[in-house]
Amino acid sequence: MKMKKFMAVLAAAAMLSAVPVTGCGSTIDPSKSAATLDGKEIQMGVANFMAQFQAAQTDFYFLSYYGEDMWNSDSGDGSTMTDSVKESVMDTLEEYYLMDAHAADYGVELTEEEKTAITQAASQFLADNTKQACEKMGATQETVEEMLRLYKIQAKMEEAIHKEIDTNVTDEECAQKTFSYVRFDKTSKPETDSDTQTDDDTEAQADTQTDDAETEIDNKPAAEAFLASAADDFEAAAKEGEYSVLKCSYGAGDLKEEDNTTSMNVEVLKAADKLKDGEMAKDLIEAENSYYIIRMDSTDDKEAAETKKESILNERKSEKYAEVLEAYKKDADWKINESEWKKVNFDELYTQKAEQTTTDDSTGTDDGTGATDAADGTDTAADGADAADGTDTAADGADGADTAADGADAADGTDTAADGADAADDAGDTADSADGKNADNAGSDN
Length: 446
Hints:
Layout: H1 3-11, H2 13-18, E1 21-22, E2 33-37, E3 40-43, H3 44-66, H4 81-101, H5 112-128, H6 131-137, H7 141-162, H8 171-174, E4 177-185, E5 187-188, H9 199-204, H10 206-214, E6 217-218, H11 220-229, H12 234-241, E7 246-250, H13 266-272, E8 285-287, E9 290-298, H14 302-331, E10 334-336, H15 338-341, E11 351-352, H16 383-387, H17 404-411, H18 417-427
Helix pairs in contact: 1-17, 3-4, 3-7, 4-7, 5-7, 14-18
């Protein structure tokens, strides 16, 4: 998850009350300079809090998968997860403070209502987390407020910058065709009964199993059989054979390899482009390591075209924001204070604070660590941080750990640049299924 996502989580009321942590104290001097922007100091207090907050989220989501040594493990490129997170934090700090420095360019400023909501949200965050956790994170009223202030300024700047794009998208640009397909791997490994064999069976059949494992099954006959049976009823044949029917939407520009924005092989797209509505290709379409059986569903898919239009607009927004940000970076003098920044580490792991039960549904309980349990089911003051602009709060959709950040991003009524960039390419490929990403049909099972 990107740094922007983690920052959004803090702005979501449900996450503020649902993600308390425990940890130990920090030796970071918050008054020291973590970086400078055109001579203005960015304090370690804010930088360290951003880093520790992201580390806490990472611990919650990934510790069970990667183990306690995940922060020091090589990511494969010679760097560690610690390096990656700290680099992400510094990139975010540079972006946020640049947007803050240029807020006047777009007439962006916080309203008194937004300032009040930020103060309340910061107070609630401190109340919802243990004293030890806050000390470890370097979380104070001042640092949490500053982080939320930066987040809000960046969101409002992004919204203002997005308004500068050309919103005209021609029918030709967004026109989409959609076809259904069933994909077969050209070859597959044979199934074995190793999971159900006894030790004696396994020993007696070891040589045979070794030979079988080295033998691949040719799935062309199965693909041809499905092709013949699907001529009358594509879906019925797929159901009968227990094969997955997937869909792909594409535009005229996707027929060129260098311009293809879908995950589908261009040769398959070209074959589909020769078909009429409801027409099925008479032959197997061979591409790379797969066979495809395809049927054109619509040569003018209005719904897919609308999705593609949104994708194009999102891409323009992302590109415009990136263009403005890059121009700001080019004219700015950003320097990282490496001697201080290297002191930040994530050696002490964060754990989620156990939720306390209550005897009164309307009140929370004190767990004895100085953190108020937010199990009362009511919205916290942090709701105001996103609600101040008159839109729905992020808390409504923030219960799921993976989707909480998305809800917080949406609460402002805008998408972040980083999220828009990722979504732009995929949004237009409605129901587009990657070559090998979805359920594959190897002849015996889908």
